[in-house]
Every structure is written in structure tokens, then in C-alpha cells.
Amino acid sequence: MAARARTLLRPPGFVTWAVAILSLMLAPASLAASRSGKAAENEAASNFKLQCSSCHGTNGAGDTSVGKTLKAADLRSPDVQKQSDAELAQIIAEGKGNMPSFSDSLTTDQISALVAHIRKLAKSPK
Fold first, then answer.
1. Residue 99: phi, psi to the nearest 5?
2. SS3 at position 17
3. Is 0.85 topped by the overall pTM?
């Protein structure tokens, strides 16, 4: 009976208005998140171009003259893509083989963003 009384006290359309108000309150946060996501993607692409493309090329294929000399991995290859995000982040941070360490020049967040960028390279047309 008490639940029925509470329902009767709500004005008509209360739930609709409550949802609308909540949506308006959350919209700026979701918009900011999408903007920051795009900004992170742009920063990752910029860092990749600056730090990685001389060996791996802009498409990640490793087919630059330096990359061929150093036998840089094709970042789009199944061998690279099957590695976990943590493994790729560790390789970027600590280096491996001919690849230098980037832990002194990139933050953990930047390295994570680079891993996400490498994942996208695999989905790009070859």
C-alpha cells in the first residue's frame, strides 16, 4: 500500500523528466570523454610518427630503409598482434633486440596509447 501511495504522489511524466534531466547532466561528461579519447588517439599517432615511424614506417610495416636494416617487426603481423597489451607495452618501455627503450621519453599512458595505435594499424588496409 505504501508503494502505491508513493506512485500516486509522483506527478505525471515524472520519470520522463527525471531521465531527461539526468541525460542533460551526463551529456557534457560523455562529450568530454569522447573529445579526450580523440585527443589521446591524435597524441598516440603523433608519438608513433615521432618515435616509431623511422623504423616501423607510418603504416607499421617495418619497411623503411632503417627498419629493413634493423629487421624491425611488422606491427600489423599476427606475431605482433597476438601479444597481449602488457607484452607490447613492456617491449615499448624496455626495448627488445635492436629496438631501444622508450620508458625515459614516454609516460605509461602514452605507451598504452601507442599499444592501442598499434592495434589499429593491424585493422588498416595493407
1. -80, 130
2. helix
3. no
Q: What is the C-alpha separation between 88 and 106, in angstroms, rounded? A: 14
- Name the residue with cell 606475431: 79
Residues in contact with 100: Cβ distance below 8 Å, sequence separation at least 6, in sequence order? none
- The beta strand positions in 12-105, using DSSP E, are none
Contact 93, 111 (CB under 8 A): yes
64: burial class by Cβ within 10 Å (0-12, 13-18, 19+)? middle
Task: For the chain, give the mean pLDDT.
Answer: 82
Fold of 38-126: Cytochrome Bc1 Complex; Chain D, domain 2 (1.10.760)
Adjacent-strand bridge partners of 96: 99
